[in-house]
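Propose amino acids for all 230 sites.
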């Protein structure tokens, strides 16, 4: 078995995506966290884009960009998370390609610098949710995107749906309740052990601390960086 090193910032959702795939495949790996404001020379030497995630294989090869890492892992390590049917696989890949747009829409309120930009960002969330709601309705019954079987699509969306819940608990957005299929999917992903790199309360505390550190508009509603008993 190859030796895997996954380099991360603690709260990076793109790294979380790669870690989820590794856990779904029961692959042992080293998780090494670095600080975004202090990226060490050894990391800069192995990361062509100077970003995380980087998956280091056998201390020889560095893979980068979360989608490429997920596809590589799925091609080389069983069980396969992509559907066997080529049409379903293409549909899954198309929805995976939508992840960056979905992520920027759903988590943008966490980067808004003032109330006006916060409201503008919040208005984009229903559009992204509506598209996934319709897609999920076409995929049939079951807790995951493809029904009963977990897939790379689930791994890709889980970090960003998790962050929606984090932001919703800081300042209620009240959007996901309008999309029952999406809400059920998101809750199923949050319950899945592979989603979590840290205990849930600890990770949410880290996320809230980052909101405070960035001094974004919504951070004023984080009364305490510790997660309340909600």
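Proposal:
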């Amino acid at each position: 078995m190859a030796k895997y090193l996954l380099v991360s910032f603690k709260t990076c959702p793109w790294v979380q995506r790669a870690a989820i795939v590794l856990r779904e495949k029961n692959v042992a790996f080293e998780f090494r966290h670095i600080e975004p404001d202090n990226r060490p020379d050894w990391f800069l030497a192995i990361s062509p884009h100077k970003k995380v995630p980087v998956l280091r294989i056998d201390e020889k090869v560095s893979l980068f960009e979360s989608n490429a890492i997920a596809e590589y892992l799925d091609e080389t390590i069983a069980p396969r998370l992509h559907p066997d049917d080529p049409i379903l696989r293409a549909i899954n890949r198309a929805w995976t390609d939508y992840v960056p747009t979905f992520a920027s829409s759903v988590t943008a309120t966490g980067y808004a610098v003032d109330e006006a930009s916060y409201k503008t960002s919040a208005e984009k969330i229903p559009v992204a949710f509506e598209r996934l709601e319709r897609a999920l309705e076409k995929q049939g019954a079951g807790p995951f995107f493809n029904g009963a079987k977990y897939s790379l699509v689930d791994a890709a969306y889980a970090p960003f749906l998790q962050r929606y819940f984090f932001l919703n608990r800081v300042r209620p957005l009240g959007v996901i309740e309008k999309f029952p299929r999406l809400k059920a999917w998101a809750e199923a992903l949050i319950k899945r052990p592979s989603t979590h790199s840290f205990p849930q309360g600890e990770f949410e505390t880290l996320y809230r601390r980052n909101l405070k550190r960035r001094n974004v508009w919504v951070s004023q509603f984080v009364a305490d960086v510790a997660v309340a008993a909600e």
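The radius of gyration is 18 Å. The mean pLDDT is 95.
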